[in-house]
Specification:
By secondary structure, the chain is of the alpha+beta class. The protein has two domains: 251 residues, no CATH class; 95 residues, Pdz3 Domain (Roll), CATH 2.30.42. Helices cover 49% and strands 24% of the residues. The chain is built from nine helices and ten strands. The protein has a four-stranded antiparallel β-sheet with strand order 5-4-6-7. The longest helix is centred in the C-terminal third of the chain and has 30 residues.
Length: 353
């Protein structure tokens, strides 16, 4: 990891921005439904700046530790005393307004991700895998292994036809099954000619000759038209959400703690990405924003999804859940999550040393 102060600062600010966006979604929805918001805090610890607009019940503050953020909506804590005649309290609002207020946080993260995708697709370019002519893997017993083709060789020519990527190799192999063919490779700066005989292999789209290698890919950044950017801004969040859900399902089937990242792990990832390219940094912000939105929608106590589960119960049964039971469930859930996050954070810190 590149521990330059500037990189780490940008990484922390990036994560903080996504959390602020999440809480801003809650804040704006709460105010739209006439709920009283007492506090909008950016960061944790002792406040170093406070501001309360004239006529507003909300105190905006920035704290010493620039991580996380929270919004305090009056009456939202089930343990608070509630005046049933106060129309600005969270529990005195209709169930629709409360659902929208809770859902607005994750939605803000998805909206932010879509906007970043739209801008990045036109300005810096979205990251896309692009194959090279470098050999990443040689299949055992294949024509390539028999001819002693090695990993990290570069296939630059097939019988006089130049090869720059996977498509060039497929085109050059076409019609050469069973035919000894000269393949020119670059190895440690030296040109070598190897004789390979491609074999026919069945694929989903038909049979084609292969030599038994896998070419390496590298990430490139491609810009798109406004129309294409709009399409990707709508489709990518859905595709990434599906991928995240598949990852969660895989994690449940085969637990692998290394796949779970804390704030420390995400900071490391963002800090490293700055060295690669600004586009990579923004792309990771997009991934984290979508993951943050999805994570908060999971039906886990203390998360937005847990609160939505209680609201769904209210909609279905047409009666509110017992406030003490809900408070106890969220408290237990919060303690569990804090414990897990603490363990993951300790592991990520150890990995840095």
């Amino acid at each position: 990891m590149d521990f330059t102060p500037l990189n780490v600062t940008f990484a922390i600010l990036g994560i903080s921005l996504l959390v602020v966006i999440h809480e801003a979604g809650h804040y704006l929805a709460a105010r739209a439904f006439g709920m009283r918001v007492l506090k909008f805090s950016i960061g944790l610890g002792k406040p170093i700046w406070k501001y309360q607009p004239k006529g507003s019940p909300t105190t905006f503050q920035v704290c010493m530790v620039p991580l996380l953020a929270y919004v305090q909506i009056d009456g939202m804590n089930p343990a608070d005393d509630v005046d049933p005649k106060d129309p600005e309290l969270y529990p005195n609002k209709g169930v629709f307004g409360r659902i929208v207020t809770i859902f607005a946080g994750p939605f803000a993260n998805y909206l932010a991700a879509s906007l970043m995708i739209f801008v990045l697709a036109q300005v810096g370019g979205l990251p896309e895998p692009d194959t090279t002519n470098r050999v990443a893997m040689v299949t055992k017993g294949s024509p390539a292994q028999i001819a002693k083709l090695r990993q990290d060789d570069r296939v630059i020519e097939v019988d006089g036809h130049p090869v720059a990527d996977y498509e060039d190799l497929v085109a050059a192999n076409h019609g050469r099954e069973g035919q000894p063919t000269p393949y020119v490779v670059l190895r440690d700066g030296e040109r070598l000619t190897l004789m390979l005989t491609p074999t026919l292999r069945e694929f989903a789209d038909g049979a084609r000759p292969v030599i038994g290698i896998q070419l390496a890919s590298e990430r490139v950044f491609r810009t798109h038209s406004m129309e294409e950017a709009g399409t990707r801004a709508l489709s990518y969040p859905l595709l990434l959400t599906i991928a995240n859900l598949e990852g969660i399902a895989q994690l449940i089937r085969q637990p692998d703690p290394s796949q779970v990242k804390s704030v420390v792990g995400m900071t490391k990832m963002l800090s490293d990405s700055i060295r690669i390219a600004p586009q990579q940094y923004v792309w990771y912000l997009i991934l984290i924003s979508i993951a943050l939105g999805l994570f908060n929608l999971l039906p886990v106590p203390a998360l937005d999804g847990g609160r939505l589960a209680f609201l769904a119960y209210e909609v279905i049964t047409r009666r509110r859940a017992n406030e003490r039971v809900e408070a106890a469930v969220h408290t237990v859930g919060l303690l569990f999550l804090l414990g897990v996050l603490a363990l993951v954070m300790v592991r990520d810190v150890i990995d840095l040393t």
